[in-house]
Design brief:
Layout lengths: L2 H42 L2 H15 L10 H23 L4 H8 L2 H13 L5 H18 L8 H28 L4 H27 L1 H9 L1 H24 L2 H7 L2 H12 L7 H19 L1
Helix pairs in contact: 1-3, 1-8, 1-9, 1-10, 1-12, 2-8, 2-10, 3-7, 3-8, 4-6, 4-7, 4-12, 5-7, 5-11, 6-13, 7-8, 8-9, 8-10
Length: 296
């Protein structure tokens, strides 16, 4: 297996672990800042750290910032806007369902990422990859569908919609990275991340200032926990983007299902939510699917 084959997998696991902790932090902020405010925290306080990452890349490589082609902008705008929508939908869904179950609905994303990647980028999906994605996604569904329980239509729809937006965002950002056509994937990924965050901060700041200026003041008052959420968000994004630079979005988002395992651990130890036999079987399917993907 080539170095890049190992690197994208390593980058994805690091990103998933960072994002799990970040999401738990955001969940707590939702109670004080609301969905829009907690969503904005992820971008506003992540941008300074992302800019520092980019500065580090520039200094280490000795390269100047890239001059993006015209084709870069539609891709990065798609990635940025879809991610805002996905994050807001995810946080809204978490108000209705348990931490892990919402994640399960959202993590139907890999199938959609494979479809969007094929349509918009021409990323091929081999038969072993398709089998791995299907098995892992079935594992997510098994975890989500609790027999005899009320499924919660609103939360289900929000979670599935968030998964679609995350898939579109991943494909958009990968398209932006590839459009730069840079030999240094670290520069391409980090630059795209920073530009995407600038767009997101601008859009959400304008929205909140016009619609609810009080939320902006509340965000500033919550700067201590927000800084942690911002750092974890920037760290996760850095590794997501590096993975997108090296392989198809469907591969990254399927391996990212290990995040469900991390979320299960967070729920068990932090929120005291026990794991059932059904959830254990779903986790087993996720692990098998992920293993098949990495081996493919």
């Amino acid at each position: 297996m080539s170095e890049s084959s190992w690197l994208w997998a390593l980058f994805t696991v690091i990103a998933a672990a960072s994002q799990t902790v970040r999401n738990a932090t955001q969940r707590e902020l939702t109670t004080t800042l609301g969905t829009a405010g907690a969503t904005h925290v992820r971008f506003l306080f992540g941008l300074p750290f992302a800019a520092l990452f980019l500065l580090g890349v520039v200094m280490a490589s000795g390269q100047t910032l890239p001059q993006p082609p015209t084709s870069f902008w539609p891709w990065v705008l798609d990635g940025a806007v879809a991610q805002i929508a996905a994050t807001a939908l995810m946080l809204a869904a978490m108000n209705d369902r348990s931490f892990v179950v919402v994640y399960a609905y959202i993590k139907t994303e890999p199938v959609q990422a494979a479809l969007f990647g094929l349509i918009f980028l021409g990323d091929t999906v081999t038969l072993p990859m398709a089998a791995a994605i299907l098995i892992a996604t079935v594992g997510v569904v098994v975890m989500a569908l609790k027999p005899g329980a009320t499924l919660g239509l609103r939360a289900t729809l929000l979670g599935l919609a968030a998964g679609s937006m995350f898939a579109l965002s991943a494909v958009g950002y990968r398209g932006a990275i590839l459009s730069l056509a840079l030999p240094n994937y670290l520069m391409a990924a980090t630059y795209t991340m920073v530009v995407g965050l600038i767009v997101q901060v601008g859009l959400l700041s304008l929205y909140l200032c016009l619609r609810d200026p009080g939320v902006v003041r509340a965000i500033l008052r919550q700067w201590r926990p927000s800084m942690l959420a911002g750092f974890l968000g920037a760290l996760a994004s850095q590794f997501w983007f590096l993975a997108f630079a090296l392989t198809a979005a469907a591969n990254v988002r399927t391996l990212a299902l290990v995040e469900v395992l991390f979320a299960q651990a967070v729920s068990h130890y932090s929120f005291k939510q026990p794991m059932s036999a059904r959830e254990g079987f779903g986790i087993l399917l996720i692990v098998v699917g992920v293993a098949l993907l990495v081996a493919a």
